[in-house]
Structure formats: C-alpha cells, structure tokens
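Q: Structure for this?
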Amino acid sequence: MTTLQITIRNQLSELGRVCDLVSTLERTCHLPAQLVFDLNVVLDELLSNIINYGYNDKLPHEIGVTLSADDAAVEVRIDDDGKAFNPLAAPEPDLTLPLTERPIGGLGLHFVRKLMDDVHYRREDNHNHMFLKKKF
Amino acid sequence: MDIIEIPSGRITVLEIKGRIDSSNSIDLSNRLRALYSKPGVLLLLDLQGLEYITSAGFRTLLIGRRHASSSGGALALCGLSDKVQDLFSMGGFKDNFTIHATREEGLAQLG
C-alpha cells in the first residue's frame, strides 16, 4: 500500500498541487490512465465545492487530501473544517430536463457518484470527512 | 490548459490541450466570449489533446453554446477521447452539442 498526503489551502490555485500528487501516485503505482482521469475529475469536483461553497468566512483554511493505492484499488480521503455538507445527500440532477431549465450545480457530484465505486461521508469534530474508493 | 487558435477558411479551430477544470475554465470562458463578440463566428473545438474536463468545463461549454446561438455563430466539438465522451453521456449532454469524430469531418460539416 502506497499512501501520499498533502494539505492545501482553500484556494483554487492550490488544485495544481493535487494534480501533481495524482501524477506521483500514477508513476509510483503504475495506475491505469482511465483511473487517473476519474481521480482527477472527482478531486476537482469535491475540492472546488469545498473551496467555493464550504466556508462562512473569508479566512484561510486547510484541507487534507490523502491518496492510497495497492494493486487492486485507489482510495481517497478528504478532510476539511468547512460547514457540514454531505455530498451524498445532494439531489441527483434531472438529466431529462432541457439544458436551459437544468440547474448545473449538481453535475459535479453526479460525476463523483458515477465515477467512484464507493463514496462515504462522516461529520466528526466539526470536520467533514469524505472517503472514496475505486477498484482497478 | 493551452488554447491554440488556428484559422481554417471561414472556421476557427481551437485546439485545447491539458485540463479544463475549476481553476482554469474561466480562461476558456473569456476566450469564447471574446471570439463570439463578432456575429456569425464558426468555432470548432478540437479536444484531442484534452486530458480531462470537469463540471466547471461543461458549464463553460454550455455558456459558449449560448454565445454561439445568440451571435448567429456555431460551436462544434471534435476529437473527444472515449473517457471524455463517457462524461458527455453521463452528464446528458451528448445530444446538446454537435460532436464530430475528427477535425476533418468537423471542418467539412461546419463550412
């Protein structure tokens, strides 16, 4: 099992560091390209959600990102001290509506649910904890 | 993300390389808005070099599509990888964009 961990600040410009972390894991563990694609999409969706909508103040915050991989699966853990938000409780977007009438906000979380095999959420000690898993 | 503009007769090809995500989709958004500030502009976005796209990128493409129709122009896409196509299907966007397999096909259809 290989585990990589970084802490980022709550700014979109920090997301490049997360891409670099995914690239490091890809090289170290020889991850399939399709899995790397899914990881990059899911991390951008969840982290941008936290950075853009997760805080009631304009103060700097830290977000923990942990990636682990063995030869069967990749696991992602995200920890933040933003307001309580369970992405799994967000409603599924109605994809049958015409585009102009469709709220686009739920799309990112829809991708997260579709691209990952397991998604879990826990609120503990005033922190949000997301756990994701994708098998090879 | 790199955006390379290639004029091809009446059509402008935009080659997009790298990723379109929440940190850079604004750059593509601004580029599309500037290009559609003139009426009747025909754009073909070649996504062959695209590593991945997130919901922020889809939002940008939808806004681009709106700019195109309100300015009497057109927006078409080509060069989508299988993974990118999967996201278009997942998001229910496949019928909302004009998607060509290759740049040649896109240029022939748009022109």
